[in-house]
């Protein structure tokens, strides 16, 4: 939405009260037009905006291995229990993500992880995982969360 609004600015309402908004179908049409317009894409890039030219997603999968034993001074693990909080905040997401889930997360709908209380007025995805020191420092690979 932001890239479309910058590439194709709207004129103020003739009454001067408010600026017209593009409808979702207009945004989709203009975004398709924008993806094919190399001069507008170059101009947006010079202004610091990035427009995703290809759709890609792999829903339902995420994997990350972290070897915290490599730096025991940084990861001392002095306590016996820990909370790891995984959070997706739309307000700190890149613009092309905000175009999909909106600036306050209206596109985030997973009821299992939906959090509307941490930041009032913003829909976050949030999940807290309880871990022990053994979970973090024990030998071998572990699956710490399986949905």
Describe this structure in words.
This protein folds into 2 domains: 2-46, no CATH class; 68-137, no CATH class. The protein has helices at residues 2-7, 24-35, 38-46, 95-101, 133-137; strands spanning 81-88, 114-115, 124-132. 5% of the residues are buried. The chain is of the alpha+beta class. The chain is elongated.
Radius of gyration: 21 Å
Strand ordering within the main sheet: 1-3-2
Total number of helices: 5
What fraction of the residues are assigned to beta strands by DSSP?
Answer: 5-15%
Note the run of SSEs as H and E: HHHEHEEH
Class computed from helices, strands and strand pairing: alpha+beta
Helix content: 25-40%
Q: Count the domains.
A: 2
Mean pLDDT reading: 80
Largest sheet, if any? 3 strands, antiparallel
Give the low-pLDDT segments: none
Shape: elongated
Q: Span from first to last CA?
A: 32 Å
How many beta strands in the DSSP annotation?
A: 3
Summarize the entry for a quick read.
This protein is of the alpha+beta class and 147 residues long. Helix content is 27%, strand content 13%.
